[in-house]
Amino acid sequence: MRNTSKRKQIIIYIALIVWTIINIFPVYWMFTFSLKSNPEIFGENIIGLPKEWLWSNYETALTTGNMWLYFMNSAIVATATILITLAVSLMATFALTRLIWKRRKTMNKFFMLGLTIPIHASIVPVYVTLSRMNMLNTYWALIIPYAAFSLAMAILVCVGFMNEIPRELDESACIDGCGVFGIFFRIIVPLMKPAVATVGIYTFLQCWNELMFANVFISNSALRTLPVGVQALSGQYTTEWGPIGAALVLATFPTLIVYIFLSKKIQESFIAGAVKG
Amino acid sequence: MNRMYSNRVYIAIFLLPALVLFCGVLIAPIGASGYFSLYDWNGLAGKTFIGFDNYKELFTSDSIGFMKALGNSLLLAGLSVFLQLPLALALALALGNRIKGERVFLSVFFMPVLISTVVIGQLWLKIYNPDYGILNVALRAVGLDNLAQIWLGNVSTALPAVFVPILWQYVGYHMLLLYAGVKSVPTELREAAMLDGATNGQVNRYIVLPYIKPIIKISVIFAVTGSLKSFDLIYVLTNGGPLHSTEVPSTLMISMLFLRNRYGMGSTIAVLLILLCFGFALLISVIFKEED
């Protein structure tokens, strides 16, 4: 009995370690070939650490490959999306949990529909509208749709947190002479920090990696975001793998750094979005 | 305070931005897509109303190949439910049993979900590269030269070659959801069964699985609707080629819209995708209910 369970344990560990290698290897390979020269990548040293660390690959990707530009575009779009999503969803959540009106429960359910609507549903109408308003090839062409598609998840998370804040706080603030805006900005928003972090991270991941809208709504190469930029760059450097590897690493490391420090928080946000949706 | 909180002006100020954004970008376009799908329209002025002709053409025309694309995405859905989910479940059960290094394994397995699909796609392009990709290099190194081939360029291998990274990337996602479920099983339930002499396998089979059934349902729904909607990795790896062998509805939709300027037809595919997603979600819920 004891022996078989021990053997089972060992088998489970071996399986887990094999799966770990399958998950880590592509990332390891990406990091190493981003620092290698073509001869090393193509035969001399395929899977080892680089013999000669070619940081110039990164220089090529950032300057002639325009990764610096794409990186900044993605950062601008992501920051604006996060700020708008947070502002709009915090306000809506305040209306949905604090303010008193009929049908606010129905309204909450209505917003939750957004968790299941695929982005395909809106691509044509949004494209047509953006084009009529001359807004294609602007940052707004991505920021507005991204914020809209992040909204349902943001409201879901915020409602959970805001319901936890005791209503007595509102009452005592009201007695102290705070108006609605005072209560919202001075009492509620400062207490929503954990929700703000969760929503911010989740929204960041969604828009940092999004491809379909970014590909369709932006054709001006100066405004490309990272996913589209990486595509363009790999078309441009088909035979030079080093700079492509560097571009892939540049597009990935912000996400990985956030993940290393906040892995639990990120995992929780994905669970919350799925299980309650 | 209640009077202040029932003031309609405040309600409007706080609610309207979200409502406008949500209706403008998510809700109204669904109706608009349905409307466009009834027209022959090249995106410029001059729409012609053609009723359900787009739908008819989509289902009957061989040159568009919608049925083939739909078949591909349904095959992906099947593989996702019967290969990816069982693997994710096995990992979740293994990690849920208070194993050493639980957190580290969990974090590593979830990592591919967070990496941009474009990056994953570019990496796999390199893995599959016919001359220098590690797959062919490895095959040649062990003497299986005749197995080495142009993975993404052959009609017979392209589809499986595209499916592997798609399935691989999201194992971690399903694992995380199921793991959260496994962790939510009350320890008393587990311990009581163990005291009655149940083995680990029996506990998993008779206590854990029934308990996490709602989460398994969610996972199945996500696996199926996610497969129907799949776009990014296929776009990066093959963009539907070679000879349309890896086409899925989304890639077809994008090429209708932006290569052939058939906005009506593109909208038709979009509408069908939404209907299919909701339809399958409903169907899966019914199946899970009937099992009880």
What's this entry about, in short?
The complex is a heterodimer of chains A (277) and B (292). Chain A is mainly alpha-helical and 277 residues long. In chain A, 77% of the residues lie in helices and 0% in strands.
Can you give a write-up of this model?
The complex is a heterodimer of chains A (277) and B (292). Chain A is mainly alpha-helical and 277 residues long. Chain A has one domain: MetI-like fold (Orthogonal Bundle). Chain A is 77% helix and 0% strand. In chain A, helix 8 packs across helix 9. Chain B has one domain: MetI-like (MetI-like fold). Helix content of chain B is 74%, strand content 1%. Chain B is built from 14 helices and 2 strands, in the order H-H-E-E-H-H-H-H-H-H-H-H-H-H-H-H. Chain B has a two-stranded antiparallel sheet with strand order 1-2. In chain B, helix 13 runs antiparallel to helix 14. Chains A and B meet through helix 1, helix 2, helix 4, helix 6 and helix 7 of A and helix 1, helix 2, helix 4, helix 5 and helix 6 of B.
Radius of gyration of chain A: 24 Å
CATH class of chain A: Mainly Alpha
- Write the CATH fold name of chain A: MetI-like fold
Adjacency order of strands in the biggest sheet of chain B: 1-2
Q: What's the CATH H-level superfamily name of chain A?
A: MetI-like
What is the level-2 CATH architecture name of chain A? Orthogonal Bundle
Mean pLDDT of chain A: 91
Task: Write down the domain tally of chain B.
Answer: 1
CATH homologous superfamily (4th level) name of chain B: MetI-like
Strand proportion of chain A: under 5%
The residue fraction in helices of chain A comes out at: over 70%
- Which architecture of chain B does the CATH hierarchy give at level 2? Orthogonal Bundle
